[in-house]
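Incident log, structure service

09:12 report received: a user says their structure output differs between two submissions of the same chain.
09:20 pulled the input from the user's history:
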Amino acid sequence: MAGRREQRARRLTRRVAAAETGQRLVEALQGWLASELGEPVPMARVRALVSAGGVRVNGDVARAPGRPLRRGEHVQALVEPERLQARARVLDRRFTLSAEHVLFDDGIVLAVDKPPGLPTHATADLSRPSLVGHVESYLRARGTPVTPAVHQRLDRDTSGVVLFGIDARANAGLAKAFSERRAEKTYLAITAAPKRSPPGRFRIEAAVGAAARGREGVRIGGKGAQAAATDVLVREVLKGALLVAVRPLTGRRHQVRAHLAHAGLPILGDPVYGLPLSDRPAASRAAARPSVPRLMLHAWRLALPHPITGKPLVIESPIPADFADVLAALRSVAGG
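09:34 re-ran on a clean worker, output below:
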């Protein structure tokens, strides 16, 4: 048993930088683990790792999560990704890519309808599935053993269109379309309603930057934040909720989620930027009545020039069943 456990474990080694001096061990470790594993790690699991004696500082076991770090200290942690990512594993959905999930395929580009609960890219835990891995398997099975190039990504719990280049000739055109903002992405989101009804169409302009060390996601403003803009169209007003179409004009990480929350319209089911029920306006609490199984964000439409022909290419993904169910429940509440 001990031998098998040692084979599954991974050793993380870091030296404390000057900028990290004074930071608590557990906070620094959470940031390092997220970087190493490719996704956030719950603070409770990091604390448990420290308390269990899985972390050493300068060779000595450190069991105090709040221990302040000093510049130059040597930190080692023996981690098992399957334990730290246990919650993510449970939430990962079983999925087999088949022709019914293909939205567009001309041998140059391949557009796939990504289900929620599946990471786009492979994580540090290679046993976990990813959309890229499924696409590689799909292409091999049909006799096209190429490495797909992906120029966009969706969060694990976001559903919808993801476009891959499956011919090397497509890569330059796809990269240009996304970098020059010629690729128009439109999302659908179900959000909590703000205290005051927003205009039917508006733009959110707020710089997006990295979150403080030890925290998940991104933050609005702060040192190093980059300009970001998002157009929002209110498609339907519901009881305590809104259905909105969102078009990010820039491509910052978590931009849509962070911008909507900043505007007082947190997406239902968002574990990072959503508001606790007690903090929502009273009128929006009705939005909590339906069961919300995941982040209610769907990459509905992608429009861009074809990377070879230059002709307009428009790809749409049908609204998934769980999104439609929440929408139907909210409409039934509104209908009273």
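09:41 both user submissions now match this output. Likely a transient worker issue. Closing.
09:42 reviewer note: The radius of gyration is 22 Å. The chain has a mean pLDDT of 84.
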